Give the backbone structure.
Amino acid sequence: MINAPRHLLVALFLVFATPLHAADNAPIERGTAILDPSALRALDQGRLGLEAILAPTGSAVTPLTNRDLFALPSMAPVRKALDEEFARYVADHKAGRPADTIGVGESYDHQLFDRALFDAPDARFILSGIVNRMDRAYVDAAHCGEIRLLYRMARIGAARIGELDASPRLPMTLNVVLKAKGDHAVDAGGAPVDCAEVAKRWLAAGELTLTGDELAAKLMAKDGPLDLIAPENIDRIETNLQIAHVAKSAAREFRTDYLMKVFDLDASSATYKEVVLENQIDRDRLLSDANFARDFKAWLLEPANFEALDRGTILIPDQFLRKGIVAPTPTGFAPSEMQPAFGLVEGEDKTDHPIFSESDVVTALQKEAERGVTLQNIRSAAGFERRLNDMSCGGCHQTRGIGGFHFPGVDWMAAK
């Protein structure tokens, strides 16, 4: 859920993927994703369908509808956490406003995502893209980074009339993040698979001209890049949903709020437990807890950490992070709604107690220069604040950065 770092640890991790075949779309840069619509349909109906990934024991029906998905014991904490976020969001937006301004349907100013969809037998998550993030090996080198399966919620079974029908897709994505290589991955001959072998498979996939079922079969073959994808590789799931939408009117600007959360797979309980978001600092606590702010400031301004922030490989300790974020789109709202950094730096600040002064940043820059380090992105207090914001889940979303999560994906259910 973060931006791809500018500095990649190993050049080999600039892996290739399947090119787009639609004539009216420019090919996505090689090394990012599998997007062939008919291949994704075939994979969704086979070994990469959500039921095969999240309920591999055969206990789930096929296809796995939302009603069945959120009834799985492993998903109970996910449903509970989402319900709690909805309750908080509604309470926050009702404060000081008439009670009838927020709800489900066009009659409300704030049109909420319909939570009844979580229990719907006619909605499910379909595979809409596969993203290779081997560049994230700096987080987990032993497993060669990550592969992400992107599932988009959609209505199923609805009658389609013509090419101009509205898409059956709904504004929620579920991202299954897997280790690119499992602990016991072996090739066809039984030899252990290393990161170089994983990368070679993706490089080879980038040269394929196949489409549809043939492409899906080749990708899933014993020497294909997706053969290494299995439920036991799951690290976590990430959710991103359009929690509310405000239509433009004479009284208000257009606005859409996106709720993002992360759930790690807890092996002991076989459930997905809510965890903090990577690099999503707890801005509210920073502004209200002086000791917390002091500790965070000291940690971030350490030369090694400051350099990692510039490079894009920083991993902020969990104690400074928060669970869940609502990111507004488009940007341009008050600093309190911009996460996590806006309002924390003197000069750009709209609060009474900024955490970082301009001199703090200048001093940190001087220390880097004395160490002989040439920074690529942070050269001023404003650059520091922007970089810190963009490295967060919410900040990345606000920049429309494609980190393998908030990527629209392929709508293979569309008539055209």
